[in-house]
Amino acid sequence: MRILMVCLGNICRSPMADGLLRKKVQQLNLNVTVDSAGTSSLHQGDAPDKRMRETASELGTPIDALRSRPFVVLDFDRFDLIFAMDKSNRENILSLARNEEDKQKVLLILNEIEPGKDLEVPDPYYGGKQGFIDVYNMLDTATDRIIQRIKVNE
Ligand code: 4NP
Fold first, then answer.
1. Which of 92, 123, 132 for a ligand 1 pocket mutation test, highest count of atoms within 8 Å of Cβ?
2. How far apart are CA 58 and CA 62, in angstroms?
3. What is 2-153's CATH number, 3.40.50.2000, 3.40.50.2300, 3.30.1360.120, 3.90.215.10?
4. Which of 7, 27, 54, 91 could form a disulfide with 14 if both were Cys (CB 3.0 to 4.6 A apart)?
């Protein structure tokens, strides 16, 4: 199984989702590839946002080694599931889909917790510290659900 996490900048939400799922997959020794990307190339090559890195380390999931890269059409071939953090990310990814198979890979990550509700992981970029903690906790729960889904399908 190959899973891609996607947000806008690939410096806050999707690297956090990536780091959490990567850690859990490693701990459980599951055969899963995890990566993340941004729909914008604005932060290409950058480490995650300092505030996200600090929160990530404080809460036990360091993400310092990750680097931002843009989402590319080839990612539809490289990954089985593509989790968007919000509806705008989802629309941006879907606009690059070549066919129905590509489209069916694209999911909203919080639908793993509350199916069908189309809830969004809020962009913490312009907010305060609590926003980063909230993002961490939402993604911690969502990635637990993704792990359950993987185990059921193994
Ligand atoms: P992310 O957050 O999509 O969670 O990585 C953002 C990071 C940077 C910008 C927007 C959102 N930006 O506009 O630079």
1. 123
2. 8
3. 3.40.50.2300
4. 7
For residues 63 and 52, is the Cβ–Cβ distance under 8 A?
yes
35 Cβ neighbours under 8 A, 6+ residues apart: 2, 3, 4, 5, 18, 79
Q: Tell which atom from ligand 1 comes closest to the C-alpha of 11.
A: 5
Q: Indicate the domain borders of the chain.
A: 2-153
Distance from CA of residue 45 to its chain's centroid? 17
User: What's the pLDDT tens digit per position in 72-107?
Assistant: 999 999 999 999 999 999 999 999 999 999 999 999
Whether the per-residue pLDDT at 153 is higher than 90: the answer is no
Alpha-carbon dihedral sign for residues 32, 115, 100, 17: negative
Catalytic residues: 7, 13, 123
Helices (H) and strands (E) in the chain, counts: 6, 4
Determine whether 111 is exposed, middle or buried from the number of CB atoms within 10 Å of its CB (0-12, 13-18, 19+): middle
